[in-house]
Amino acid sequence: MKRESAVTIKDIADKLKVSPSTVSRALAGNPDININTRKKVADMAAELNYQPNLIAKSLRMNRTNTIGVIVPELVLHFFSSCISGMQNACSERGFNIIICQSNESFEQEKINVNTLASSRVDGLLISLSTETNSFEHLEYLKSNKIPFVLFDRVSEDISVSKVVIDDEKSSFEATQHLLNQGYKNIAFINGPENLFICRHRRIGYEQALKANGIAVNPANIHQSDLSEASNILCAQNILAMNPRPDAILAVNDVVAIDAIVTLKKLVNIPEEMGIVGFSNSPISKIVEPSLTTVDQPSYDMGFIAANHLLDKILDLNVPSNEAFTLHTNLILRDSTAKSKIPA
């Protein structure tokens, strides 16, 4: 079936018997065009279902009013909430977004960057995959003067604006909560150490132990690749330890919930094993027992990252490598509600 041709400015001009330049200026709201003529043009454009040629417009403006977003996994509530903040920030300022996911693959992340850059997006918002350990694709963006901002999963190795939480402080406070609840032998299930968030959450965990006069036991630090199978294996290994840890700090809620599901038939949570996660995902409220977790301001992270990128795109004289550190809150639930031992 032959596709109908799109209505053009010339079609509107022919219908109204005016020049195409008059139609163009009328549609742009040019005050030099009589208000009655502007109304006639607008009405005819609506009648003919005229849609402006965005490609031609972007070539004239040297801007597409579109930004690209790359996240590791869309299925994670944290990233979907970030995207919601980005969408609202962009919509308020007349921009659209194109969303890609790397599926935790470095190769896919590079493909996403190249695809979005080739599509002439005005800038990118990127959260790195678990596999990302080199940054030539990001240096390519810098060398081609394509602005971008990293959020949540960032790197210290590239000078660019970043939006993060205080991972060390948040992890310190979560570990301190477990100690305050009477847990003494705390294990940590971490993710890949090449990720900024994983390194700094481990540092916060270790600092809390040291602040309480507890030596860090390397055997208590378990590393997951963040897959379900790896999360479960870490939980099983902790259960098999002798002496067995009586609490787990997990690098995120998915890891923590996999640990709860794996362990709760074998140990009493929270009496024999306390568990804390990171993110405050919706399922953390309904898992049994409900999960104590660090609430990350994911919507705000996306909103701030997008607005900062738009400021860069619009040349509003913002720093090229500004750091935004957002505050978190520890949400107390049943997974650490250990009964107090009478004095």
From TrEMBL:
GO molecular function terms listed in the Swiss-Prot or TrEMBL record: DNA-binding transcription factor activity; transcription cis-regulatory region binding
Name under which the protein is recorded: LacI family transcriptional regulator
Presence of keyword Kinase: no
Superkingdom classification of source: Bacteria
Segments forming domain HTH lacI-type: 7-61
Organism, scientific name: Anditalea andensis
Family annotation (Pfam families): LacI (PF00356), Peripla_BP_1 (PF00532)
Keyword Transcription regulation appears in the UniProt entry: yes
InterPro entries, A to Z: HTH_LacI, Lambda_DNA-bd_dom_sf, Peripla_BP/Lac1_sug-bd_dom, Peripla_BP_I
Keywords of this entry: DNA-binding, Transcription, Transcription regulation
CDD domains, alphabetized: HTH_LacI, PBP1_LacI_sugar_binding-like
